[in-house]
Design goal:
By secondary structure, the chain is α+β, with helices and mostly antiparallel strands. Helix content is 52%, strand content 7%. Belongs to the PrpD family.
């Protein structure tokens, strides 16, 4: 009798801690596209479309411009596209720069259990390789799904301890996702995949100290490049420890005070972490979204202007002030990590897109004035996607709003039409209306794409 995918791998109760890396590698090597439920495949396509819009839309951000100017003189043959540009560069540099571009707006996807931004490290790595090796869309989506699954499972195993120490988990776990996905496209065997994961384990990147600076977006870019490098080296026989994740001095024990290895190996092929990936309606740290959602609802419901508001009182989950407590942001990137700025622009403009996080926006006099009237207190009982907002109006009125699940969360996901609108808003200024529409359709139709180079070419602006 033919074995199912899940039966070929040990469950968490049978899986000794000494076999975590190999069990994961065996699963990745044996996984087939036909094993993916339709729901998982569809969700990964949405993840790809969201990633593509973010990467193209931010291609001219100063962080990308600076990185390109610094590295372009040293780049190799023009093997892969820098998304949203006419420029082509070598595969490794393309993975890095597209990874930076996909994250710098802080508008990309989020696995809320770990706050990993899954697509950036994985899609940036495999898009560059897929273009070079002429991979089709079905193989691409399968590899992307496996990469997302790998990084999120590894993230689950060490979160929140690893994150609390100060690691930026998108970079540190994302490198595994990139290595797994690239390894799948390269057709690595089990031992080669073990080595690829080991090489990935040796390249953690990302400190939370960098939030609010260009270096935050460097983390998923470098994770993409490092994971790609790991799989390429492994494909040629480069060796590593067979227990790189779980060994006493392996990745999990070095970077975290707690390890839950069953999160990595349990129910492989049955429990799909990729289905918990969410998409942002607002271009800032995910933990601020409930506040923004509630402020916009109050503004619209009562037709408020900034001049109506005397004070804004917020009660938030503890992570909000830990991650986004910047009281007086000075740059747009700073503003993405300021719950005070985010509440102010949501109330003033009814939006929190990329335009609300420009350098000019955080220095706008009206925004600064309202921001100074925003206070925030921790409420430990609140869920991460919940918030309580109280507005004290100058006429003495008190308005209150509790957001139990913010838009964009697992409980209130963005629909396909919402993702399409977000994509169009990001990409049209770069490519124009008709080309943006064609690229969006190509993204939705990726499973029928015979060569990912065709999609890459659609991201290049026409003269």
């Amino acid at each position: 009798m033919e074995q199912t995918l899940s039966s070929r791998h040990s469950s968490s109760t049978d899986d000794p801690a000494s076999a975590v890396t190999r069990t994961l590698a065996r699963y990745l090597v044996n996984a087939q596209p036909t094993d993916l439920p339709a729901e998982v495949r569809a969700h990964t396509i949405s993840s790809f479309v969201n990633w593509l819009g973010c990467a193209v839309g931010s291609t001219h951000h100063p962080a990308v411009e600076i990185a390109l100017a610094a590295l372009n003189p040293f780049s190799g043959a023009p093997q892969a596209t820098l998304l949203g540009r006419e420029t082509r560069t070598d595969v490794l540099t393309a993975a890095l720069l597209n990874g930076i571009s996909s994250h710098v707006f802080d508008f990309d996807d989020t696995h809320l259990k770990t706050v990993i931004h899954p697509a950036g490290p994985v899609a940036s790595a495999i898009m560059a390789l897929a273009e070079y090796q002429h991979i089709d869309g079905e193989a691409f989506i399968h590899a992307l799904t496996l990469g997302i699954e790998t990084e999120c499972r590894i993230g689950n195993a060490v979160f929140p301890d690893h994150y609390d120490i100060g690691w930026h988990i998108t970079g540190t776990a994302g490198v595994f996702g990139a290595a797994a996905a690239v390894g799948k496209l390269l057709g690595l065997d089990e031992q080669q995949m073990v080595n690829a994961l080991g090489l990935a384990a040796s390249q953690p990147v990302g400190l939370r100290e960098m939030f609010g600076t260009m270096t935050k977006s460097f983390h998923p870019g470098r994770a993409a490049q490092n994971g790609l490098t790991a799989a390429l080296l492994a494909s040629k026989g480069y060796t590593s420890s067979p227990q790189s994740i779980e060994a006493k001095r392996g990745w999990a024990n070095v970077v975290s005070t707690r390890q839950r290895y069953h999160e990595i190996t349990g129910e492989l092929g049955e429990r799909h972490e990729s289905l918990l990936n969410t998409f942002k309606p607002f271009a800032c740290g995910i933990v601020i979204h409930p506040v923004i959602d509630g402020c916009i609802q109050l503004r619209n419901q009562y037709s408020l202007s900034g001049g109506d508001i005397d004070a804004v009182q917020l009660r938030v989950h503890p992570l909000v002030l830990e991650l986004t407590g910047k009281r007086t942001p000075q740059t747009g990137l700073d503003g993405k990590f300021s719950v005070y700025h985010s509440a102010a622009v949501a109330l003033l403009q009814g939006r929190a897109g990329e335009h609300q996080y420009s350098d000019e926006a955080v220095r706008d006099a009206q925004t600064v004035q309202l921001r100074q009237r925003v206070t925030a207190e921790i409420e430990p009982s609140l869920a991460p996607d919940a918030a309580q907002i109280t507005l004290l109006l100058k006429n003495g009125q008190r308005l209150e709003k509790t957001v139990e699940h913010a838009i964009g969360s697992v409980a209130k996901p963005m629909e396909r039409a919402d993702l399409a609108a977000k994509f169009t808003d990001l990409v049209t200024p770069i490519l124009g209306e008709s080309q943006a529409a064609a690229l969006l359709q190509a993204g939705w139709d990726i499973l029928s794409c015979s060569d990912m180079s065709d999609i890459a070419r659609l991201t290049q602006p026409k003269a």
